[in-house]
Amino acid sequence: MITFTRIGVIAPGKAAAVAAFNQKVVDFYRTQYDVKVEVQRPVAGNPSRIAWVVRYPALAALEAVLAKSQADPKYLELIATATDLFIAGTTHDEIWRSA
Fold this sequence. Notes:
39% of the residues lie in helices and 25% in strands. The protein has helices at 15-33, 59-70, 73-80, and strands spanning 2-9, 38-40, 49-56, 92-97.
């Protein structure tokens, strides 16, 4: 099992807009790629962080969705609407494999 996590820090005053954006991302991935995106917030630490977590059966499945999304103009347009919602330079990705 492969777990892909994208973590970012919400810009000040943008929490409500991020909630709306999250719903669009979750719906988009579900309808376009048949992928379930789980949105998570921290229990401790920086409360402005947010994570999007997706689990795939294999690395090839993750790579296929990443390739599709990066070539999808609708996805790129959706992501572009969020540029002011997050602090620049705070978003990073992690890929984990179940032991």
